[in-house]
Design goal:
This protein is an alpha+beta fold and about 270 residues long. It has three domains: about 110 residues, no CATH class; about 60 residues, Antifreeze-like/N-acetylneuraminic acid synthase C-terminal domain (Type Iii Antifreeze Protein Isoform Hplc 12, Alpha-Beta Complex), CATH 3.90.1210; about 55 residues, SH3 type barrels (Roll), CATH 2.30.30. It has one helix and twelve strands; from the N terminus they run αββββββββββββ.
């Protein structure tokens, strides 16, 4: 930070007969260092007070932003650390008489990366733009054991791990109930944080297995046996051969090894 001008008296030693400094033997260079140290130390309390005030204002700004972001994203127990980069040249050196006001230059805070804040002091009136950065940590769902490919995931296989929010963390899960009931696309190692591109809805119907075909029409309910000709997730349309008639129909998957008929293929 820029130091304010102050009058500081530093006594220099008188020169000796040989032109060298006498008395305590302090050289002019040493005296200059003493002068600079005196100037710095005289401004230190004011600078420290301003630093604390800036840190507090930035912390309050990020606290408000994080509360809104956590509600929007469904983050559980988030926390953050912050960094305030050096104030620009010409910035005030003393604290504001009132709490600093903050205003962000970005309409939507992503939860990571640097951003610019305007710090404004009501009295005496001044404002300054600073660069700040918050690192946000959230609880993300992870595997507590090895999960095999296509294995159905249960809540007993899951736990939480603290991770820093980044561009990659947007695909993480915030709650265990978002993951339980899905299956892994590939083998997943223990302690690995899970993301949406790693998981898939489990197969409710597998090709070649016997399924129950149900049909509902008003108050009439009927069912028959069939053979799945395709794999199917919940809600998918698949081809099923009616075991009794041999006809192939399109049926929608409604549960484990259960489909409902839509129309018959000739």
């Amino acid at each position: 930070m820029k130091l304010t001008e102050q009058s500081v008296t530093v006594r220099l030693p008188l020169p000796g007969p040989d032109g060298q400094s006498g008395g305590s033997g302090v050289s002019p260079a040493g005296a200059l260092c003493a002068l600079l140290l005196a100037l710095a130390s005289s401004n230190a309390p004011a600078n420290e007070a301003l630093d604390r005030q800036v840190d507090q204002a930035v912390h309050q700004h990020f606290t408000r932003q994080l509360a809104d972001k956590a509600a929007e994203e469904g983050w559980q127990n988030p926390r953050f650390t912050q960094k305030v980069f050096a104030l620009p040249d010409g910035a005030p050196t003393g604290p504001c008489e009132q709490p600093l006001q903050t205003r962000g230059t970005e309409q939507h805070w992503s939860g990571y990366g640097r951003l610019r804040l305007t710090l404004a002091c009501p009295a005496p009136a001044w404002s300054v733009d600073v660069t700040v950065q918050a690192t946000v940590y959230i609880q993300a769902v992870m595997a507590t054991r090895v999960i095999e490919r296509e294995q159905l995931i249960t809540s007993a296989m899951l736990g939480y791990q603290e991770v820093a929010v980044s561009r990659q963390s947007s695909g993480y899960f915030n709650r265990i109930d978002q993951v339980a009931g899905l299956s892994a696309k590939r083998r997943t190692r223990s302690q690995q944080v899970l993301s949406r591109d790693m998981l898939v809805e489990p197969w409710q119907v597998r090709r070649g297995e016997r399924v129950t075909v149900v049909a509902n029409h008003g108050d009439i309910h009927a069912s028959t046996e069939g053979e799945a000709l395709q794999d199917g997730h919940m809600g998918m349309l698949i081809r099923v051969r009616n075991t009794a008639s041999g006809k192939v129909i399109e049926a929608r998957v409604i549960g484990r090894a259960r489909v409902t008929s839509t129309l018959e293929r000739p």
